[in-house]
Amino acid sequence: MEFPEGKYAWMVKVGEKGQFVIPKEARELFGIKPGDSILVLADRERGIAIPTKEVRDKHFSRLFEEVEQA
Predict the structure, then answer these.
(1) Band of the pLDDT at 70, cuts 50, 70, 90?
(2) Total tally of structural domains belonging to the chain
(3) In this structure, are residues 51 and 60 in contact, taking their beta carbons and an 8 Å threshold?
(4) What pLDDT, in 10s, does the model give residues 8-30?
(5) What's the CA gap between 18 and 3, in Å, rounded?
(6) Residue 48 DSSP class
């Protein structure tokens, strides 16, 4: 199956402890290295998302700016 440019999909299996392996291609694409921390977001209707480091940092920066202004 072909995906539009820049779009990807992988199937992973969830183990007994609820863990899954991020596919090698995805880790390389997003620069995920052993020991890195990732943010997992969830929405009951839309599912689970793992934002990129850039998106995560952008949202954290905005959050902290709002806290400082309060």
Answers:
(1) low
(2) 1
(3) no
(4) 999 999 999 999 999 999 999 99
(5) 28
(6) E
